[in-house]
Design brief:
With 145 residues, the protein is mostly helical. The chain has a domain of 97 residues. Helix 2 packs antiparallel against helix 3. The radius of gyration is 31 Å and the shape is rod-shaped.
């Protein structure tokens, strides 16, 4: 696609953060971060891990009786052949979800702890900056009187 084919509106498009207002500039509470997405994502990964465990058990139980009574059927042989592949895929998903569950929750905890430290650091710096913003008043020495 050439520049001539791109609509004018697209050429002038701006990228904004989802949490950012369109007014521009910084400040305010617009960009507050939260531990919630990390811990929530970890919880979802944990639920998916449990769901994959259930799926693997159900898949195994569904194939329990396939070989008995279906000897000679091509479909039974095909199902048995692909069972291992599906078990491997579902196991990989389950294991990844288990890893993500722990890692995302740890990240959320670390993020929260870091957030507290950073906030305290900014508050300490802010109080020193506020001291510089106070109007200057000359000190009167009693010795000079």
């Amino acid at each position: 696609m050439t520049d001539a084919q791109i609509p004018q509106q697209s050429k002038e498009a701006h990228i904004l953060l989802a949490s950012a207002g369109s007014g521009g500039g910084g400040g305010g509470d617009v960009h507050k971060a939260s531990v919630w997405p990390w811990t929530t994502a970890g919880g979802v990964a944990g639920e998916l891990n449990q769901g994959m465990d259930t799926a693997l058990r159900d898949l195994s139980h569904a194939h329990d009786g396939i070989k008995s009574g279906t000897a000679g059927f091509a479909s039974a042989a095909a199902l048995s052949a692909i069972l291992g592949g599906w078990e491997a895929r579902l196991s990989a998903v389950r294991d990844e979800c288990k890893r993500l569950d722990g890692d995302l929750k740890k990240a959320g905890t670390a993020f929260g702890e870091n957030e507290v430290q950073v906030k305290a650091s900014f508050q300490a710096t802010g109080s020193r900056i506020n001291d510089y913003n106070k109007p200057w008043t000359p000190s009167v020495s009693k010795a000079g009187k």
